[in-house]
Amino acid sequence: MFKKVLKRLCAGLLAAGLASAAHAQPTGTVRYVVPAPPGGLIDNMARMVAQGIGDKLGRPIVIDNRPGGNTVIGADVVARSAPDGQTWLAVSIMLAANATLQPKMPFDIRKDLVPVARLAVTPMGVAVPANSPYHSLQELVNAAKGGKSLNYGSSGYGSPSHIGTALLEASAGFKANHIPYKGGMPALNDLMGGQLDFINVTISEAKPFIDSGKLRLLAVSSDKRLADYPNVPTTGEAGYQGAVMEGWTGVMVPGGTPAPVIRKIADAVLAAASKPEFVKRAESMGFVMAPQGPEAFNKQFYGEIDRLGHVIKTQNIKIE
Questions:
Q1: Model confidence, pTM
Q2: What pLDDT is stored for residue 7 in this prediction?
Q3: Which region is the signal sequence (predicted)?
Q4: Would the N or C end of the chain have less CB density within 10 A of its end CB?
Q5: What number of other Cβ atoms are within 10 A of residue 170's Cβ?
């Protein structure tokens, strides 16, 4: 009797060990959920990662676009998935903002998703039309503080361009009229047409118009000047240290995913993103490579939730 019990116990432990090993070394197709339509910055980066990993991961990767809800719909798909390394989320700064903008999300952002790796940042900056009377950020701020009613556009309520301008307003001590659009391009078209006074633009999106002279870049909302625009000061250099705002993109997986699986995914993703051809292509699209592993990205992601949450609350930013 004792031998039978011992035999069953050993068999059970062996099965559990094999299951655990299989769990830590997932196989099969990876579903890479992009919470945005095809063709945007997040989607482009995800597709580059999927193409660039090659044999490093040893599994095919399929992009699954799930736009809507300010990226919440796609994030929810991943949050509800099994924590087996088979489902990834292409995450952006919008998810960190949504922690405050949408407090009733269908998942717990601090428990149901885990940061794996950050890939790159997307710098932003304050741009005006080519015929604008403002040739520096200080001139624009002085006009607003002097009583000039200024209109600024954004790609929607709670978008990085909206929050970035709110940071600038809080740092510089002025208020402007917010005109939300359904996307960045409609707002840029109205900026170039003179219907808006300025936008805190995503540089990669506005770059063709800045380079062609249709828009004038007054300042970049980064910690340091950009290589493509070395003569354009940062918002900090202009005196507004609290106005730093950069978009970013990375990878997350469902909460509960084992640490070895997270590390394997991070290593594969970061190895792909470090290849010279990957970096060159990303930079041509306006990205600045800024890789982070699980520990650093975890700290940055939750720090961003707190930082953005503060400005969203104090500036009364809401999704309407």
A1: 0.84
A2: 47
A3: 1-24
A4: N
A5: 17
